[in-house]
Predict the 3D structure of the following.
Amino acid sequence: MSYTTEQIRNIAIIGHGSTGKTTLLEHILFQGGMISRPETVDSGKTVSDYSEDEIARKISVRSSLTHVNTDYCKINFIDAPGAGDFVGEAILAIRSTETALLVIDGKSGVQIETVKLWRILERQKRPRMIFVTRLDEDRANFSNTLADIKEKFRVTPVAVTIPMEEGTSFRGIIDVLNNKAYMRPSSHDQKEVASEVPAEYSESVESARALLSEAAAEGNDELMEKYLIEGELTQEETLLGLKEALAEGKIIPAFAGSGFANSGTTALIDFIMQSAPSPFARAPEKAKDQDGNDVEMSIDPSKPASAFVFKTQIDQFSGRLSYIKAITGTILSDMDMVVSRDLHKERIGKLFTMQGKKLEEISSLPAGDIGVLAKISSLKTNDTISQFDKPISYAPLQLPSPVHMLAISAVNKKEEDKLNELLNRAAEEDLTFRVSYNPETKETVIAGMGEQQINMILDKIKSQSKIAAETRIPRVAYRETITKKATAEYTHKKQTGGHGQYARVVFEIEPLERGKDYEFENRIFGGAVSKGFMPGIEKGIHQAMEAGVLAGYPVVDTKTAIIDGKEHPVDSSEMAFKLAARGAFREAMKQASPVLLEPIMNLSVFVEDKYLGDVMSDLSGRRGKISGQNPIGGGIVQIDAQVPQAELLRYAIDLRSMTSGTGSFEVEFSHYAPISGKIAEDVIKAAQAFKTQEAEEE
């Protein structure tokens, strides 16, 4: 069955880890008739958690695409992992959908990842719904969870469904909107069946319905006027108002239930069909045209076809899979399109949707829908494909910078190239995992969002390729600079038979403002050194700056002026002046009070307020300068500080230990700052030891 853009619903299922998202989705698919029976996470057979890593660890580690087809609409679900190490998967799920379903544990309430996900939703102005799950478990409480949400996020969720009892007495839920009761099925593999609302809940239902009508009136001025006059709305009017209010982010619909007990899924599906926004409600996509100008593109089936690649997955059976969000037009099988990144053409071939790991072939993908392209090797995440005469490029995913770094090498050096190939393939699938080679430290460095993410990638590589890798804390890329003016001269003179080599230069060097890097000035008057030799002199300075005189780190923020020199009519050459310049710079630097510079990072730490004191004390012990602390809701405090990079190399592990696994942080480079004393001495000793080790290995 084909669907129009208006009939599409795209839902991102997100939440704190272990809140039951995968179980809830399994029962949505079951209730929606897409699978014959629901499986448990423990069984390793759920639709959305199908990779070896997920089955072994019993957690979601990557987003998965599923769908429910009805006569009324098609509902795409993207189930995202809840662990902070895999936040990139949640971000791409949010980016490619119109509505988020935030799953919250009815016992634990708002947790730290809930808060962080809420901030992402706020920044992206994404409509959201809440499903309070596990209400069949001891100490679960629907009302308390809604109160927790209200307190911590300064919003008032409106209940679309309410529970009939809670905890071990949980009987099922009531669909307030449609005035139906759904008793808890006797087993988890039985479907919900609608029934009359028990009389003892009539008062609770009327109270909840009044709040729903009031919330619906927020979505439409005419409805608000009628509600103020008459005090109520019809069911059709309520549905219309809720749909408009949800699309505009004016209300937060809340649902009660239990994924494992298959309770609450029917009412949720009905609400999504009736009131969740279609792709037409989506804010225009930011893009750039072929000339680099900013443009905006709304969901529009009438325009030429275009789509955004939001995820890449390399499957051992299906090959390379490119997940796409269609923005304009209709994408068809065997369609020719242009990749905006380099303007090369690609034939689409077959189109697919997915039910977990199962590819389902489709003939077309309308604007607003989500699909998959298989075996197109040139496509990458963040690519735009289009049929526009002048191709556009949609804005890339905004992902956080990696926070946990390790230097890596193959145990068997002959396998180094293969290891790097596999690491780069992993980085294609997960853009929060990055691989780079640092020529200064001569290390391959991998970076990710946390220890768990990196370990899982390395375990997968070892399992599939048998390549063993060893990791270590990476070396810090220090810098050297000078603190005062100095003058030095250097003469390069060599006689080798025939033409000799001769060049004399006199340099004056002085410090520059931090971040200015390098300046060169020719102050010679009278032609003591010909202008034709100046390029060679600058090359010599650049070579000298590649390795400073303290520990061999690159030199920055210096101004060099040549103030005098001498050349020979026969023996002078560009090479001679390059060598002379290199020598003069090093001599001048020794006299200019050189110092080491270390990278300073901007750090934002997110912790529960009960850990605030411990974390701040720890940051002070790491030579951190705390610039502020800000409560951001949910009992979470953001601490901002500047900390030397050398003090943060194990911070991802240490912070989790300090905060019982709940803390997280964001980090980015700020500037370089001088170091001295014992810290500088230790850095110099370590650099000398590294040089000695390199020489021995050679």
Remarks:
- Residues 300-394 form a domain with the Elongation Factor Tu (Ef-tu); domain 3 fold (CATH 2.40.30.10).
- The chain has five domains: 5-281, 300-394, 404-475, 483-593, 599-678.
